Give the backbone structure.
Amino acid sequence: MAEMRDLYPTRKGTTPDIRSRQDPVVYSEWSEDAPLTRGEYESYRDNGFLFMPGLFKAEELKSLLDESARLRTDTSRLEPETLVSEPDSGDVRSIFALHRQSDVMQSLAADERLAGIAEFLLGEAVYIHQSRLNYKPGFRGKEFYWHSDFETWHAEDGMPRMRALSMSLLLTDNEPHNGPLMLVPGSHQTFVGTVGATPEDNYKSSLKAQETGVPDDENLARLYERHGMSTPTGPAGSLLIFDCNTLHGSASNISPLPRSNAFFVFNAVSNRLVAPFAAKEPRPEFIGARRHTDVVTPTRRNAKPLAA
């Protein structure tokens, strides 16, 4: 079998390999029947992300908050390897394989406001490549450095092309001072190949603090000078959608206010994983799905709130 051509080389040289994006950003044409307005569609296409304030209402959020609290406090029924703690305090930082360990979160992922939009933007059926509950506690929530998710998914998971996106549903208010996500608009059009080989079992440390696969300062500065920076903030229930190659990161949270979100990565079924492009072995299933790749069928919005 012929080796798949690598369109996005990374972690293979001594200097960063900067390339223009070789894939579309959106795979469907906008029409009146689209799940997004024309303005939302064009904003996502041009900036590489879209923020939709207040998409989920208070009664839906209560169930999701109750479930997230249960998952963080009663971890005995969770797969131990899916729990990631803060590097210093030991507080729960992330719970991976979220949709496989919670019926409530599985229903959330299939909601047409998530899966339906993902299916539209990616132009075909989708599955969940990765899901997690993110929790950045007050006072001691650590930062996450600038990176492109696709660089890691390509290098360590074997995701071939840029036909994936992330959705982050805010479970708490995102304020300027509690470590919200920052993004570089327009950066999704440039792939920044990084330097340095992938260490063995890199995921064990990178999930706590990413050091491998981060872009160099010079190219980060160039992209910032060209595009600027955006920090979407808003109330709980807002949805942030961003392309797999959009550069993003978050500062530490030294405020008293915790920040929490439910995070789902949707990948096109035609873009299923192959062998990693810059790692000896693929990361575990709970980080990059190879077996659990069932198509997510969007479910119509129910008048009743999500319930446990």
